[in-house]
Write a structure and sequence with these properties.
Blueprint (H helix, E strand, L loop, with lengths): L1 H28 L5 H24 L22 H7 L2 H13 L11 H7 L36 H15 L34 H9 L5 H5 L3 H10 L6 H5 L1 H11 L1 H8 L5
Helix pairs in contact: 1-2, 3-4, 11-12
Length: about 270
């Protein structure tokens, strides 16, 4: 009995030490307390919790026969809190004893040998060899393929439209040549009748008119005579408006003014018919 009591006290001390260590670590890490406070509260927890465990589980309070020394003191590892509560009354102790006596003894589980397990497994079905499919022999002689007659592709509406656009471009606005192009040939000053109002051409504003005048271009007929080289030069050298000559068809507009007159040009300008 004394050995059991010493073992119970040792286990109670271990549990109390673990609890005190947890409390000290919690205070220092989580609560950010000082080491002195954590160690002090950990030791206080060990003393209080250890004393409680020894009093509750190792002193034999409430156990049957503890007053006269005839009862056995329950140990900490064999006694649960519910059993301690039931053991404090005579009715609970008697009910606990009857429940323990009435508990059936578990029947031993028969051992199954590995050989019996292997014998009980069904035998695997024999594999059936797959029949090889006969390979088809390639035919040696193949019939000659008939040559398709050479038929010229029919002209599509898209191709006809492209041809019409190219014809219109050649007749009106010439396409810009590749490269930097050639600067248009200019005049030192406008003719005696005075310079033309180049702003009548769509896409030419006051700033662009000044640029063209700086090149010596003052009249509509000068722009109407531009070719691919001059158009390429105008597209690349007009400041902040690159490609404006081709996009707004300056040459085509100038040709209409020269050939048909200003009134006809203004009428066609309403629908951009250049």
């Amino acid at each position: 009995m004394e050995d059991q009591s010493q073992g119970c006290r040792g286990k109670a001390g271990i549990w109390a030490g673990i609890t005190g260590l947890v409390v000290a670590v919690f205070l220092m890490v989580v609560a950010h307390e000082t080491i002195f406070v954590g160690v002090f509260m950990g030791l206080l927890t060990v003393l209080l919790f250890g004393g409680f465990l020894i009093w509750a589980f190792c002193s034999g309070r409430g156990a049957p026969g503890a007053a006269d020394g005839t009862g056995d003191t329950p140990s900490l590892e064999d006694t649960t809190p519910v059993e301690v509560f039931n053991a404090q009354s005579p009715e609970g102790a008697a009910a606990h004893a009857q429940a323990v006596a009435a508990a059936p003894t578990p029947a031993p589980v028969p051992e199954v040998k590995a050989a019996e397990v292997e014998a009980s497994k069904p035998a695997p079905a024999p594999e059936v060899p797959k029949a090889e499919e006969p390979k088809a022999e390639p035919s040696k002689a193949e019939p000659p393929k008939a040559k398709e007659p050479d038929v010229a592709p029919e002209a599509t509406p898209l191709a006809a439209m492209s041809a019409q656009v190219e014809t219109t471009a050649e007749a009106g606005q010439p396409a810009a040549a590749e490269g930097e192009g050639k600067k248009p040939r200019g005049l030192k000053q406008p003719r005696k009748a005075g310079a033309d109002d180049l702003k009548k051409i769509e896409g030419i504003g006051p700033k662009l008119e000044e640029v063209l005048n700086g090149w010596g271009v003052w009249h509509y007929d000068q722009i109407a005579k531009w070719g691919p080289e001059e158009v390429a030069y105008a597209d690349q050298n007009v400041p902040r408006f690159k490609g404006r000559c081709s996009r707004d068809k300056w040459v085509a507009q100038a040709k209409i003014i020269v050939d048909e007159g200003m009134d006809a040009f203004l009428e066609r300008a309403k629908t951009n018919d250049y």
